[in-house]
Amino acid sequence: MFFDSLQFKAVESSLNALSIKQQVISQNIANKETPNYKQKNVSFANILEDAVGNKDNKKYNFQVTITEDTNTTINVDGNNVDSDQQAVELYATYLQHAALVEKINATFTQLRVVSSANFN
Known about the structure:
Blueprint: H1 6-30, E1 40-48, E2 60-68, H2 83-119
Antiparallel strand pairs: 1-2
Helix pairs in contact: 1-2
């Protein structure tokens, strides 16, 4: 079934990781005026644990790492949130999320077409 496929697990994991990234960026923007607040950054690592050649496709996952940027200071109050850069990051994350949702929608459309063709 589609929900157990490696493709679906990859898209599901990607959406979860992007959701975390959106939350972190939103937190950064919300703390733009907080003295000494340090911007947090999100990075992903693809984890494909023995899924190739293995029938257990549920092991595909993105590892999300959140780090604090302590090396820069943009404002005099010690805050280093660059709101312009964060806005661009948030929009890029939105576009990635929208593309993945479109991919899932297209797959569901294909499944509906196939299932209606089999029953007519």
